[in-house]
Amino acid sequence: MNILERNELLKIVGGISISGTLINSIVRGINALLEVGRSLGSAIRRIVSKNICPI
After folding, report:
1. Is there a contact between 41 and 35 (Cβ–Cβ < 8 Å)?
2. Which residues lie closer than 8 Å to 46 by C-beta, 6 or more apart?
3. Chain centre to alpha carbon of residue 7
4. Looking at residue 2, what is its pLDDT?
5. How far apart are CA 15 and CA 38, in angstroms?
6. Can you tell me the distance from the alpha carbon of 48 to that of 53, in angstroms, rounded to the nearest whole number?
7. 8 Å CB contact between 46 and 52
8. For residue range 10-40, what is the model confidence (pLDDT) as tens digits?
């Protein structure tokens, strides 16, 4: 393992940056999960109440 000098440590750049694109993709993912849950809940409720459209 190499031991870095102080001036080498100061030159290290990295990390995570939170951008608008990242936030937008997270929000879209959460919205998609909520919509799937609503659809599944509606389907279960319609099956239980026998309110299904005929084919």
Report:
1. no
2. 52
3. 39
4. 85
5. 37
6. 13
7. yes
8. 998 888 888 999 999 999 999 999 999 999 9
Per mean pLDDT, which of 4-8, 35-39, 47-51 is the most reliable? Answer: 35-39
User: Among 52, 33, 32, which Cα is nearest to 43's?
Assistant: 52
Amino acid symbol at 4: L
Residue 23, CA distances (Å) to 15, 18, 37 in order:
17, 7, 21
Q: pTM of the prediction?
A: 0.59
pLDDT at 55: 67
Q: How far apart are the first and last CA of the chain?
A: 69
| Separation of CA 42 from chain center | 23
